Amino acid sequence: MSIFTYLRSHALRVACSVAVVALLFVMLPVVGVEAGATELVVLLVTVLELVGLLWEWLRGRSFMRSLVGLAGGEDDVLDAVDTIPEPEYPEGELAWDALQNVAQASRRRGAELEEEMRDYRRYVELWVHEIKTPLAAMNLTLANTHSEDARALSREVARVEADVENALYYARSTSVAEDYLLRRCDLVQLVRDAVKSRARSLIEAHVAIDMAGLEGEKGLWVSCDPKWMTFILGQLIDNAVRYRATPDRDGRGARLSFSASVEGAGSANERVVLHVTDNGCGISQADLGRIFERGFTGSNGRTHERSTGMGLYLVRTLCEKMGLAVGARSVEGEGTTMSIIFPREHSHAV
Fold first, then answer.
1. Contact at 8 Å (CB) between 288 and 330?
2. Is the pTM value of this prediction over 0.85?
3. DSSP secondary structure string, 103-136?
4. In this structure, are residues 270 and 278 in contact, taking their beta carbons and an 8 Å threshold?
5. What residues make up the domain containing 20?
6. What percentage of the chain has pLDDT greater than the value 70?
7. Rounded distance, CA 264 to CA 273, Å?
8. Structural domain includes residue 275
9. What is the CATH number of the domain that holds 280?
């Protein structure tokens, strides 16, 4: 805090000091004090008042600077509180004690919330594993029934399984470090595994798969957790199916294409980029900047099949946890391209 800010905040005291000096200068001659003595008294009082103000400012300057830093938004406020030196005057000591108590209470509450989150995560994981058993039994029963009703029910069961999977990965996304391991993976094989995991929905939706952009790219290695990457690609495939083109509405059949390339080869910015492109309804420019927000469904989510707005949020969150980047380009009415970027150090990881 600057001296001018301090004086402004103590304007009343400064005004009183000036008034005392002015009264002494006026009243002392009236009561018969000689001019020289009056000037000496006025000078001494003025110096003492200035020294008092300066001492109080210097005494509290370090502590006030620390408070300014806290008010300005430190990266870690609680850690910053621990670095504040304890002041040596009553008002500062009281404020310092209050800050320490607030910091301790915040840490205790944070630890309690963290434990509650761990308990919730464990419960969700247990619930997911438990619910998979009846779902598997339902699928087995429906697989042996060849009626239209059974096929319709099977599709609904598949939706439940997808939502259950989303719930599991959302719970794990809060502490992903406990559940993933970066490995050197063949990107082409990862795409094939993801397509295979969604084969049923792709066939039922009559979506043609084009992997020509991956031909000749065998041995394109990237570093990621294969389980997490299969889930991420599965979410992109699900969106392509949900917002696919139809001959009746769009005059074209649904198509989903995969391609990959190495950009900036040999440079420090070398990276592997995977593109997942569909020819569906596309995303409006108004919605494009928000599609990775949690719970955002946009106009497509309101006009097409139901959407929770969690799929792309999980895609972005899990990519960031693994050090990857994800982006989107889209033209409304023509299609969308989702891109996953694997940095150079990942593409050469072993």
1. yes
2. no
3. HHHHHHHHHHHHHHHHHHHHHHHHHHHHHHHHHH
4. no
5. 3-85
6. 91
7. 11
8. yes
9. 3.30.565.10
